[in-house]
Specification:
The structure is a homodimer. Chain A is of the alpha+beta class. Chain A contains four helices and six strands. A six-stranded mixed sheet of chain A has the order 2-1-6-5-4-3, sandwiched between helices. Chains A, B: Pfam families: SnoaL.
C-alpha cells in the first residue's frame, strides 16, 4: 500500500506537477528532515506550503522525471533510489538556463503514518548537476 | 544475516580500515555499479583491488566514520542511509588538508549473493563536502 501511494505521488506530483493532487498523498504536516539540496530543509510544511515548494522547484525544470530504481519498505517508511532527468529551462543556483538535458541520482526515505507521507530524508548528487551546468555554460562561452 | 554482515563490513573495513578483513565480506568480483563520488565507478574489483580502493580512499580521512541511519532489506540487497564524518588530513580533489572536521550524507544499495557483497549503487552529497572545504580554506586564506 505505502509503495503504491509513493509511486503515484512521485508520478502525479513531482513528474507531472499536479499540485492539486498533493493533499491526497501527504499528511497535514510534512517535515523535510534532511535534504541538503532543498531550500526548505528542516521546515515543516502544510499542504499549501508543499504546493508552493513543488511549483517553485519545478519552475526551471518543468519536464523533470524521477525514475525509481529500487524500492524498500519498513513498517513506517519507504526508501527509494532514483535517477532524475530534466531539460534545464530556468535559472538553477544562479546559473542561467542552458536548454540542455541534465541528470542526477539520489535516494529518499519517505516516512508514513496512516498511509500518508509525513516527511522525508534525502540525499542527491548535486555536484554532478553543477558539473554538467558548468560544462554546458563553458561550451557556450 | 545480510544486515549483520553489512554492519560488520562497514565497521571493520570502512570505519577501522582493516583491509585484511575484506575477503570475509565481499565476493570474488565486486562491481561498482553507480557511484559518482568514486574513481572506481563502473569497475569490477577483485579482493586485492578492493583493498587498494579502501586504502586509497581512507588516506586523506583516516578517522572516517560511516554512521548508519536506516537499513532496508530485500531478497538480494540491503539499502542503507548514512552520515559520514572525518578529519580532513590529506588532499581531497586537489584541495590541501585543512585539519577540519567534515561531514557528508549518502545512501548505498549493497547487492548480495550467498551472504557476500557483490557490488553497490551509491549516491552522496559531494557538493556539501566541497562547500565545507572551500569555506575552511577561505577562512585560512
Amino acid at each position: 500500500m505505502k509503495q503504491a501511494v509513493l509511486k503515484e505521488f512521485i508520478q502525479k506530483v513531482w513528474n507531472e506537477g499536479d499540485i492539486n493532487a498533493i493533499s491526497k498523498y501527504i499528511a497535514d504536516k510534512y517535515t523535510i528532515v534532511h535534504d541538503p539540496a532543498d531550500p526548505w530543509e528542516g521546515m515543516e510544511l502544510d499542504v499549501a506550503g508543499f504546493q508552493r515548494r513543488v511549483a517553485t522547484s519545478r519552475e526551471p525544470v518543468p519536464d523533470q522525471t524521477f525514475d525509481i530504481q529500487e524500492m524498500y519498505e519498513k513498517e513506517d517508511s519507504v526508501c527509494i533510489t532514483w535517477l532524475w532527468s530534466a531539460t534545464h529551462l530556468g535559472e538553477i543556483a544562479g546559473m542561467p538556463p542552458t536548454g540542455e538535458k541534465i541528470t542526477m541520482s539520489g535516494a529518499t526515505v519517505y516516512y508514513f503514518k496512516n498511509n500518508k507521507i509525513t516527511g522525508h530524508w534525502q540525499v542527491a548528487d548535486r555536484l554532478g548537476v553543477f558539473q554538467q551546468l558548468q560544462s554546458h555554460l563553458n561550451k557556450e562561452g
